[in-house]
Amino acid sequence: MSAIVEESDTPLNVLVCLYDGMDSMDAIGPLEVFSTAQHDSKNPDTKAFRTIFAGPAEHVVTAQGVTFSAHVDYAEAMKRLSEIDVLVVPGGNAEAIIKAKSQPISIIKAFAELQQKNPARERSLMSVCTGSLILGDSGLLAGLSATTHPDYITKMEIICSNAAQRDMAERCDVVEQRYVVNNLRFELGEDEESNPHILSRKELKEQKRRKSSISSPIEERGNGANSTNGSRPVHARKGSMSLKMSNNRRDSIIKRASLKLGGLRVLTTSGVTSGIDGALYMVGALVSDDAADEVARKMCYTWKKGMVVDGIDV
Prior knowledge:
Blueprint: E1 12-17, H1 24-36, E2 49-55, E3 59-61, E4 67-69, E5 72-73, H2 74-79, E6 86-89, H3 94-100, H4 105-117, E7 124-127, H5 131-137, E8 145-146, H6 153-167, E9 173-174, E10 179-182, E11 184-185, H7 201-211, H8 240-248, H9 250-258, E12 265-269, H10 274-286, H11 289-298, E13 307-308, E14 311-312
């Protein structure tokens, strides 16, 4: 469906958490997607997102030797956290961050706490690659499903298990997928099997069974094959108009508040370039599928779909 553009459609704020040793692509991939997304593909004045870099210092050096300049430091970002709609956590040097207990750990926790205190606003937390290890160690993945770089699946399981024991909380279901979404905003409909945004437990078990017979550690899942573009028909509410409804309807806010983390959408992605796929999902959810497809077209990129494990119309 196409986004409904109104004069009040101001760009959503995306905060990317920078730190030394992070992977460059983990930030650049989502940045390219968010900076390209528009409500109207023919109108460059309808930018859907505004991206802000936060870092521990003015300059941050990545694992590839690239220097990023932060727009704000973490202290300033904490003050402006209520303005942020999407928080992006790159991977690359995650284990060092966990060991040092340094940023972006505090801002991630504060963002999640903000959603729990104020579920009236729809917020999303997105990690790329091993950035999910930071989320897992922080205890934010308790009772959720998540993924990470395939080489770190076992490490992720250990980190999440230790966090669950430490916090006396539920375990995280760690799976190998392109990306995993929790606390989405979709009306699932009566026939969940026909909804392309849901991977049923039966389908998940079948994928796990097949995994041992494929050579690639990353199993990519399409959205079905009942249409020419590979997507099955769906009547789920998506896009900027439903985002407005989600933030304004009292029943939506009540439903969101009843979810884990106050309904904070938590999206974890697999290795490196999967951050592009996760960001495209975010564009589809917050703007429109048409907008996401247009971004992928401009980037000459084939959008590889992930999985969603639960949903509620909020």
